[in-house]
Records
---
Amino acid sequence: MSYSFELFNMYKEQKNYSQDKQAIMDIPKLNKGALYEIKKEKRCFTAEQALFIADQLDLNKQEVIVNLGIEKSKSEEEKSVYEEL
């Protein structure tokens, strides 16, 4: 499961939403198609979306951005740099 989808599920659970569409309406610039691609690990949340969720769930914003960077990494070298932060 991708980090973005984990964040989505944490948000949905925290808000006691039973349907994805309820959370989709809250998260900035998210639509059903984008969520489908996130579930398939073809897409990640934007920094704006991830920070919105971090604010709502009172998560450490730096950790969220680093984990999002790891998810978006295209190379092992890039990934290892994020993991060292």
---
Amino acid sequence: MTIHITDPETDRLARELAELMGTSITAAVRAAVKNELNRERHKRGMPAIK
């Protein structure tokens, strides 16, 4: 399964995050989505995912 990022700003942000993390764009996007998902789950009193 793939995600195709067509928004230039989103692409830039993902690439910058990957560079700062020293990892791939895929790993950086995974980490960012996981962090945001856990933040939203926390707001709703739901357990975090690992």
---
Amino acid sequence: MKVFTLLFLFLVSFSGIAQEPFLSFEHYLKTSKKVTQLFSAVFPENNTFLVFVEDKKQLAVYSFDQSGREISEGFTLPKFAKEYPNIGGYTYQNDAYTLYLSTENKEDWALITLDFKKKSFDLQEVSPEINQNRILESLTYNGKHYLFTVKRDTSIVELFVLDSKGSITTQLFSFEDAHFEVGKSTKNLYGLLNGVYAKDVTTLDNNSPNALETSKPKNKFYQEDHLIAFTIDVTKNNTYYLQFDLENNTTDYQAISKKTFEKKILRTESNSFMFDNKLFVLKASSEEMDFSIHNLNATEKSTSFSAQQGTPIDFKNTPIIQEGGGFKSYRELEKTSKFLRKVSLSDAAISVFKENDNYIITLGGTKEVAKGGPPVYIYGAGLTGAVIGGIMSGIANATYYQYNAYTYTKSARFQMVLDESLNFVPDIEVPLNSFDNIKEFTQDTPETVIQTVFKFSDTFIWGALNAKNNKINFFKF
């Protein structure tokens, strides 16, 4: 077992920055094939994490404890990416690790149970009877995996619950008494999620920073233990908030009104972000914008900020930054009108995290633009929801998103700082978050280097494969 845990600090730098090492080990299961992906999965149930190393022939897996010590000797298993490219989640029970993989449409599932004592795996293939339900998203809770769907032509959410043994049960949540307004008509939940935004669904992890690229989907799931929140931003006038209590089988529903602009403008863009039981809502046109914050657990008045073209934005702590597109990847926009126009013609997005009791908020818009060129590898913060085949890496959720080998993202944004009472804090420098630090640390790392990022306890870990000596090195952030 060729593993070398670093017992002392040494300086390794990609950009002149010293960083604390966490773990270095040799990929001793390597075949002659070139490594194509590196990703990690964390299991808080027993304070362990797995490292997966994929090449064109096989998938190698190694297990480590919280100090970076290898628990058991690793082993290899076949690749299942072709048949089951999506990783829905993973659990640890009875000394075994289970991965929940699915087809791209999430109609068929494969449960892969890893046994490090026997150096073996077990594969179970299951297919829930989804019928004509609309599939939304899946997530893991308390050793089980939950697939969220909406029953056809209703406002009833049906959950298909998979356990590690392959059995499937169902759980129903009714929102039949809720009203979902689309223009001047009222629809059920199934109808609301129809059309262009039906597949625009993601799950966000609020324990990690999120870039606008990851928070731009109109429909978002958030998980806080057994409480699951689902926000829907497919209409101009309302954000719909649905809550599911998996333990008590209860629901909550709210319709949060968006600002109505006085001037009739055909195109507006809006989106929301949930953080600290608050809903942060952005709505923008080419002439004005409104940013409001609503407490989901109280009836108190919301806090709001607004800006119009022709006047400076007086609640920002950074310049307005545009990145991506053209030969200048970074430039600052001076005029409010340029920012509003770019947001209204792209996908509006919000990102929120907390630092030193202050809310650090990013407001802006992103736009996907077709472009030829080499693939860019993803940085991320976990394994769930990732794609494990092709160019997409198994670490999708955080600083950079790659849509495919032929696209990149163009964004315009600025940041603002609010205190705990949601008052604007002027003249304060916006602090860097963990992903900013990782980005700075790895700024000179070639794009072809295989990398991964994950969060273990309260620490972010970045790792990369050194192709020359076949070692994988991890650092703390």
---
Amino acid sequence: MSLHTRTRAIVVGAGIGGLATAVALRRVGVEVEVFERASELRPAGFGISVVSNAVAALRVLGIDLGLEARGQTIAHTEIMTGQGRTLRSLPIESEGDRLGAPSVAMYRGDLHAALLEGMGKVTVRTGAAATGYEKTPEGVRVRFEDGSEATGDILIGADGINSVVRRQRTGDGRPRYGGFLCWLAVTPYEHPRMTKGFNGHYWGSASGSASTTWATAAPTGGAPSTCPPTPPAPGTATRTRSSAPTPAGPMRSATPCAPRPSRTSSPCRRWTGPSWSSGATAR
């Protein structure tokens, strides 16, 4: 099968992975249709870093999403203790110059919007929850909850941690709980020491448990920016992965307001498995 013919791809899932795959396939001449179980496409998630290798991979395909204009190029990353002592400093910007591509911190919804724009006329069908697939002599057929079907030459499963495509492909059961909890949010924050392009990781403890707090100085784009009038209690920053500690200062000196809206996430893990694809199906 040549990717330069009118090959047709079915992508299940319209998140970052599914849309990025659709953009790349369309760029090399593949006809793509994306199916998403949610009833509508809307911004989701909080902060995300698109690092140099991802930006470089897009450029190889001639795809420029204008990420630098949508977010903030990361200049340097500081890995610190909870008291602000530097454990390691990473020259992210100079490494990006060496590799020919920057690392960009941005609001996840802005990345999602950029990918939607980059897809052009690719059809995204919402309210389409996949229930399974089967191989056919011509390629693959996907079944959906409403009884409809879609056929194509190849199937890409990008439908998240509880992927229907993955479950049928690998049969590896439920995801494994990672053993920790994340608080995720985006909040407006300014501090003289938080210079443009700063990215900090603070390692400390909260209520006797290990925790990590990180902060990146970047535009929030379309992110919500509502703050309550009362600052959080001292030490709250140590319990949130999205608070903004003072660079070179302790975590307790940070976060002028509790970010809102926010949500918790219980990260789960999947074993990679022996292979990523089988015939016309990839996950």
